[in-house]
Specification:
With about 400 residues, the chain is an alpha/beta fold. Helices cover about 40% and strands about 15% of the residues. The protein is built from 14 helices and 14 strands. Helix 1 packs across helix 7 and helix 12 packs parallel to helix 13. The protein starts with a strand and ends in a 7-residue tail after the last helix.
Length: about 400
């Protein structure tokens, strides 16, 4: 029998959460009803009161509610609920979590769910699930299920939705997870223009006994990779496609935020970095490109994706940014530079071939990085470059294992 947290604002949606709790019992599991409401008294009796939730974060709930600032209450309860859920999960007192909500309930409950590890069953039935859910998911595997109608009482529609949701969370906690051979995990960043390189490097690293997870460098992919690195599950990082920094600097649509590459430093894991696809900034269809970039060099990747070539000035700044991130790494690391091309379309004869921009990028990296730099007179997708990256990471991970003065991540 599993214990499933039923998390909700029991002042306004107590009946609905109690109904889901009953359904969970009918499936043979035990619900833990947790109140995160900050309005009127709960309409059903919780197993964990809102006062107990607030206490997990040291909050004065009475003082908070007395100010009657709903936004402040929602934010505070979201943080407290995350602390409580994470504690319950670590102590193995819950095996999954489900919630039902509108705007406020979704904000509180998904924030709490984001405090839980990847793989922990989490399901949110929400009025907002049919829209842009990225702010609610963050980098976590929260299942968002549309409530269709508002979460406002029990009726012929809501009973169907809630019954399916209860069945879904029960199925999630019951599902056995095949963890395979539990090989050490390596993560890698990849884009269409570095696919050949990363695919070959992945093959070599896996032949050496590792499992490699590849993340698309599309903003969301970079953030997800960062979250996994920071979780402590990763033995090595093959960050060959740092292109998201070009979008972050210049204003493209696939940026991963200014924290991109910080997780490697925080987790203290070996890393090999390459300036893959720093020649390009991503926009949508051609008409979406800001007018200020008129006259720049563009490449129409497809009708929905327009790439813009980075300038020498932008490349110099990108080189300094990447170098600064690498200099913060605490585990063995190296930067590999493919001097002939940093993407498919920056090679000689291709539309983004720009020796001056590449030189500005490489010079900035070389003049700023304090650690190991390896230059190869190759294109990034040359199998020899991929092998050099893979073998260097394997070397660094071996070095890390032999360093008994520093705990393994």
């Amino acid at each position: 029998m599993a214990i499933i947290a039923v998390l909700g604002t029991l002042d306004s949606k107590g009946e609905e959460h109690a109904y889901v709790a009953d359904l969970i019992r009918a499936h043979g599991h035990s619900p833990l009803l947790i109140d995160v409401g900050t309005g009127a008294d709960p309409s059903v009796r919780p197993d964990v009161t809102r006062t107990e939730v607030a206490a997990a974060a040291g909050l004065d709930l009475d003082g908070l509610m007395a100010r009657k600032d709903r936004g402040e209450c929602v934010s505070a309860m979201a943080g407290a609920a995350g602390i409580l859920l994470a504690k319950l999960a670590v102590e193995k007192r819950i095996d999954g979590v489900i919630s039902l909500g509108g705007g406020g309930g979704t904000a509180i409950s998904t924030a709490a769910m984001r405090a839980l590890p990847i793989g922990f069953p989490k399901l949110m039935v929400s009025t907002l699930a049919a829209g842009n859910v990225a702010p609610y998911l963050g980098t976590k595997d929260i299942v968002m299920m549309p409530s269709i109608a508002d979460v406002a009482g029990l009726n012929r529609l809501s009973r169907v939705i809630f019954s399916r949701a209860a069945g879904a969370i029960c199925g999630m906690v019951e599902a056995a997870v095949d963890e395979g051979d539990a090989k050490p995990l390596v993560v890698a960043s990849m884009f269409g223009n570095t696919t050949a390189c990363v695919t070959e490097a992945k093959r070599i690293i896996e032949e050496a006994g590792y499992e490699v997870l590849v993340f698309a460098a599309t903003g969301a992919g970079g953030r997800s990779m960062e979250a996994l690195i920071e979780s402590g599950m990763v033995a090595g990082v093959l960050d060959l496609t740092t292109t998201e920094w070009a979008d972050e600097l210049v204003g493209g649509v696939l940026n991963a935020g200014p924290e991109r590459m910080d997780a490697t430093a925080k987790a203290g894991v070996p890393c090999v970095v390459a300036p893959g696809c720093l020649d390009m900034v991503n926009f949508g269809e051609k008409a979406s490109v800001p007018e200020k970039y008129a006259g720049r060099t563009f490449y129409i990747h497809n009708p929905q994706v327009t790439l813009m070539r980075t300038t020498p000035e932008e490349c110099a700044e990108l080189g300094r940014i990447i170098a600064g991130k690498v200099n913060a790494f605490t585990a063995p690391s190296a930067v590999l530079i493919p001097r002939k091309a940093i993407s498919v379309i920056s090679a000689e004869g291709q539309p983004f071939h720009d020796p001056a921009a590449d030189a500005a990028l490489f010079d900035a990296i070389k003049s700023t990085v304090k650690g190991e730099i390896i230059e190869k007179d190759l294109e990034i997708n040359d199998p020899a470059f991929a092998r050099a990256c893979a073998e260097k990471l394997l070397e660094l991970m071996t070095l890390r294992k032999s360093d008994t003065t520093v705990p393994l991540s």
